[in-house]
Write a structure and sequence with these properties.
With 477 residues, this protein is α+β, with helices and mostly antiparallel strands. The protein is 35% helix and 27% strand.
């Protein structure tokens, strides 16, 4: 199976596509730029969705659903918003065999239609805060697409909240950034840097945009999530006001935040190897696969029965397990298939294992093999899965550290970027002109202004002008 996948060092983009398709995460749709998410890929997304949804509800948010069709006039109410999204809009002009009186935009994001509804729902300070999330699909007419990373239609969640004060809105924006960071690191095993986007990179219509940035296996950056402080821009555009405790009417303060199926691509690229996927146990659709090994019919009966018995013990412990008892494939072929699909742990049960009352375990991440007693097998497997989860995160942290460099001169910046890639910590003078010039000359962008870094004065790596702190540069998806 691995022979059908090009090596990462030969063609990383092709490797990525090979893995996504051959591991049956997704396939190309008849509609150009769209994808079909296959059951295995959707199972991974469901686990990601559930992990995020639990966190949203723990922080007081509730789910709702809004229409995917938005009156075109709504998109023009917030000038910066429409300017930012106009090149990506898909517009419906006919319906029911007739030309529509007003064209309808297929949502690229839902701020406009949601804030039109909030105008009806918010009257008093007692109605605030309003904390709503929706799980939905959106359409952005992308010219260059890649499965999961950038497609014309994709799945995501988008939170939209309304607050009585600017301070509450900022707290919400940062709270949800922390939620995203916790999910990425705890469940995805992907370390992220939390930061502020530059004015050029912020969301269209936002006052401030915060993000989490991660480093992929080819040393390019991937933006994994964003949280936006929208100030009063959308409230002003849609006339959303409330009566404060003094009886005066004020515009509400807003946030929005979202992550998408792009996170599936992040898992592929952050952990995958030349043999395919390497999935973090907390999100893997199948955490453990059991392969019975036999030569005779008698051995088949015994090992298959024991495999299903052990699987029952694991399922009772809340683990996701699958028994591969197909008799038209040899064990070696099955091993390769499940390695391609990134199943974290494989259990092998053969006649000798039955005699020893044990199973043989094989970790996907480090290819380590070891026996495990059948007595207490569920606890033993659960412990191994937690070990794998932590090891994957630690390995990703080490990779990021090895590929993060502080650079102080323009020559050094270009040399390191070209030869090594990765994150570059460099001073920036804070101007749009310098940011644009660096991107045009090197294709590197400012991924974020890190929130946790100390203030450090210096000279801009490009212009030599004074700089108050280093920012994070990288080539990115």
């Amino acid at each position: 199976m691995a022979q059908a996948i090009v090596k990462q060092t030969e063609d990383y983009a092709r490797w990525y596509t090979d893995v996504v398709q051959k591991a049956e995460l997704a396939d190309y749709s008849p509609v150009k730029g769209c994808m079909v998410i296959r059951p295995y890929g959707f199972g991974l997304w469901e686990n990601m969705r559930d992990g995020l949804d639990r966190r949203f509800k723990e922080t007081g948010h509730v789910n709702a659903y809004f229409p995917m069709l938005i009156p075109e006039s709504f998109m023009h109410r917030e000038a910066e918003h429409v300017e930012g999204f106009s090149p990506e809009l898909a517009v419906v002009t006919h319906g029911g065999g007739k030309k529509l009186e007003e064209p309808l935009v297929i949502r690229p994001t839902s701020e406009t239609i949601i804030w039109d509804m909030y105008r009806k729902w918010i009257q008093s300070h007692r109605d605030l805060p309003l904390l709503i999330n929706q799980w939905a699909n959106v359409v952005r007419w992308e010219m260059r697409t890649r499965l999961f990373l950038r497609t014309t239609e994709f799945l995501w969640q988008e939170g939209h909240t309304a607050h009585a004060t600017a301070e509450e809105a900022e707290e919400e924006t940062l709270r949800m950034l922390d939620v995203y960071a916790d999910f990425a690191e705890t469940d995805m095993a992907v370390p992220v840097t939390k930061g502020l986007k530059t004015e050029q990179e912020k969301f269209a219509g936002a006052v401030r945009t915060y993000c989490i940035e991660s480093l992929m296996g080819d040393r390019k950056a991937l933006q994994c999530g964003t949280s936006h402080n929208l100030g009063q821009n959308f409230a002003r555009a849609f006339d959303v006001t409330f009566q404060n405790e003094q009886g005066e009417r004020e515009l509400v303060w807003a946030t929005s935040w979202g992550v998408s199926t792009r996170l599936v691509g992040a898992i592929v690229m952050a952990h995958g190897d030349d043999d395919g996927l390497v999935l973090p146990p907390r999100l893997a659709p199948i955490q453990t696969v059991i392969v019975p090994i036999y030569k005779t019919d008698e051995e088949k009966t015994a090992t298959v029965a024991e495999s299903h018995r052990v699987a029952g013990l694991l399922k009772d412990a809340g683990l996701r397990v699958h028994v591969d008892d197909r008799d038209n494939f040899k064990p070696g072929w099955k091993y390769a298939e499940w390695e391609l699909k990134g199943v974290p742990l494989r259990l092998e049960i053969g006649p000798k294992d039955l005699e020893k009352r044990s199973v043989f375990t094989a970790r996907r991440d480090v290819r380590e093999k070891a026996p495990l007693p059948v007595d207490g097998v569920a606890a033993g497997v659960a412990e191994k899965l937690e070990t794998i989860q932590q090891a994957m995160f630690d390995r990703a942290v080490a990779f990021r550290a090895e590929n993060t460099r502080r650079v102080d001169t323009w020559d050094e910046f270009k040399e390191v970027l070209e030869a090594e890639g990765g994150f570059l910590q460099a001073h920036w003078d804070g101007t749009d002109a310098t940011e644009t010039a660096i991107q045009e000359e090197t294709k590197a962008t400012i991924r974020c202004i890190p929130l946790d870094d100390d203030v450090e004065e210096g000279a801009c790596v490009y212009s030599g002008k004074p700089s108050k702190r280093r920012v994070l540069f990288a080539k990115a998806y």
